[in-house]
Amino acid sequence: MSSKKTHIGEHRLAAESMMLHHGYDPKLSEGAVKCPQFQTSTFVFDSAQHGKDFFNYASGRVDVPEGVEPGLIYTRFNNPVLEILEGRMALWDGAEDCLVTGSGMAAISTTVLALSKPGDVVIFAEPIYGGTDTLLNGVLSQYNLQAVGFNGSDGDKGLAQAIEKAKSLGPISVVLMETPDNPTNQMIDIAACKALLEAHDNQGGDKPVLVVDNTMYGPIFQQPLQLGADLCIYSLTKYVGGHSDILGGSCSGSKALINKIRGFRNIIGTNMDSHTAWLVMRSLETLKIRMNASSAGAKEVVDYLAEHPLVEKIYYPGLLTEEDPQYKIFKKQCSGCASTFSFTIKGGESEAFKVLDSMQMAMLAVSLGGTETLVQHPASMTHSSVDPVRRGEIGISDNLIRISVGIENPADIIADLDQALAMIG
Ligand SMILES: Cc1ncc(COP(=O)(O)O)c(C=O)c1O
Questions:
Q1: What per-residue confidence (pLDDT) applies to 2?
Q2: Architecture of domain 80-284
């Protein structure tokens, strides 16, 4: 099988099938069925001329001639495992190209900084992951970049207001949003946002780049690039890695945008290491079955919580009714629900802590998308760095609990929640 084969005759292979083959040629690795780990920091050139050519291609000084392989140089630039992983992630996202990084935050910061210059404005939807919030509100100003937030629940209307605000500040480089967001699962209409950005004059410069952090639902339940986003980012630490044992990130999109961000990544060194890439490739083989299994489990847990007298509200798109404006966005953008959602309980922080401290099987830990069920308290943990007043406005209340349902038997997760909720009954 050709290592880049995507079809059998007219038949297009599904992404989950290509995760087992794409980009790897056993003939180049002694016939090994699995891609070996290339645990090396640097690569031997055939000749000095080859070394010179490879550097010219890698730096973009010379276009890679048709039919020529650019060649391996140094693992901060490229490595067979990293390249195969990037090719496979691009397949999931339906992207021309992809790059991987050492963490989700590395993907976000590398992307934002590569695309921005001093004086630019970065717009973002709130809530957004606490680390991203700190980057935007705490770090960017050091580089003379301004951040303008809008309430994600105001959707594209909120974005329109943020664009108006930005007009007096400077050109907009990037619009960054999570949809659904972490932790309240609010969704924003990606196509409507893209249309607003296309219509914005942006002080005569390039149009702002629309970046969706697809960590919560992707790539199985949502494909932002097909919905109008320019770039799709993941914390691969979550569902894609899927076993709570690695940190990683990725960014997919057009070749032109990814080349720009890759060049920046290679210089600031926010790369993924090849061993992690090898582990993520292994995870990709089971991504679809893991996400489907945890999604089915989460649905059972939601059904249980929805009937519980101490549960006030569940932030789970599968419960939306047709009258809710979010319903239409959910149906348009998502093919199902992933397994991470939040719910409020009767009471405040102490009741939430009591429930969390009482869980016997689910672990009290931040992160999400692993095979095991995790619970946490966004207001005091993942989103504690968000300004407390703002936190209240965007729904991160003291009685909010986030759960990432894993692949345990759902009846066991429900039994665990049942006894923990009984502690505050
Ligand atoms: C939605 C989202 N994006 C990005 C990140 C950051 O990812 P990482 O921890 O891999 O840097 C997280 C981490 O929790 C997240 O939840």
A1: 45
A2: 3-Layer(aba) Sandwich (3.40)
pTM: 0.95
* Cα 77 from Cα 63, distance rounded (Å): 16
Q: Among 182, 212, 243, 280, say which to mutate for ligand 1: greatest number of ligand atoms within 8 Å of CB.
A: 182
Sheet holding 374-376, edge to edge: 311-315, 340-345, 400-404, 374-376, 363-364
Q: 249: Cβ below 6 Å to ligand 1?
A: yes
User: What is residue 150's predicted lDDT score, i.e. its pLDDT?
Assistant: 95
Closest protein CA for atom 6 of ligand 1:
104
Distance 12 CA to ligand 1 centre (A): 32
Calpha distance 401→359 (Å, rounded) = 12
Q: What is the residue extent of each domain of the chain?
A: 80-284, 287-422
CA of 236 to the centre of ligand 1 (A): 8
Residue closest to 125 by CA, chosen among 175, 170, 165: 175
Identity of residue 260: K
Q: 236 with 199: CB under 8 angstroms?
A: no
Q: Rounded distance, CA 112 to CA 260, Å?
A: 11
Distance from C-alpha of 97 to C-alpha of 254, rounded to nearest angstrom: 6
Which residues of the chain fall short of a pLDDT of 50?
1-2
Architecture category of domain 287-422 in CATH: Alpha-Beta Complex (3.90)
